[in-house]
TrEMBL record:
One of its GO terms (cellular component) is membrane. This is 1-acyl-sn-glycerol-3-phosphate acyltransferase. It is an enzyme of class 2 (transferase). NCBIfam families: AGP_acyltrn. InterPro entries: AGP_acyltrans, Plipid/glycerol_acylTrfase. The lineage of its organism: Bacteria, Pseudomonadati, Acidobacteriota, Vicinamibacteria, Vicinamibacterales. Belongs to the 1-acyl-sn-glycerol-3-phosphate acyltransferase family. Its EC number is 2.3.1.51. The keyword Plastid does not apply. One of its GO terms (molecular function) is 1-acylglycerol-3-phosphate O-acyltransferase activity. Residues 76-188 form the Phospholipid/glycerol acyltransferase domain.
Amino acid sequence: MAVPPFHWWRTVFFLIPAIALYTIVLGTLSLLSVLVDRQGHLAHRCARAWAWLILKTTRVSVDVEGLDDLPRDQPYLFLANHQSIYDIPVLFWHLPYQVRILAKASLGKVPFLGWHLRRSGHVLVDRSNPGNSTMVQIKELMRQKASILVFPEGTRSADGSVARFRGGIVMLAIEAGLPIVPVSVEGTRHVMLKGRLMTCPGHVRVRVLPPISTVAYEARKARELAGVIERQVRAGVEDLQVAST
């Protein structure tokens, strides 16, 4: 997709300062909200406002299908493909749930963003010891009726293809009895390509697939279930790519 020449200066002189301002202001509000709301519900509202502002400022429109068929009375593990850092604001704004992300612990050191993640219930994983503490956090989020968003490819796709899904988070979902919802995202890579700071206006399509119960699975079947979800997400992405051509 061709990038109009004005986008570099629009990004540098308008978008970056605007997004930095949103992050500082709403990050500060989210930190203050934790003083009165330990479960992070108010902080999540700040995160959703941050996501909405970013999408509006960068002129990114989003179509979502499948949400109407998803029951709202329980938490889920949302597993989505990863094309761009824009996947986060797209899904935070459009998933009508209390959503927390599972991310690497080093993100907790980033000013404002990391402080928000640490203090509002998001799961920051120490990859050298990911097990027991992560399970405790996931179970606590389930008790609070909060859902978890994970990008199980582990990295962003440069060309829109879906890479192999890691089985570790699926195993945790099986152990916690958390239903899994596959999510296909297409178009965010055109908004902000991997390795590129410049952003472009764009249109994103999201397909939310039916939830998969983990009750019938044993932990040793996590890799098998991860493969099933990976294929569903890949098929959804490919369908969306064809529909957009």
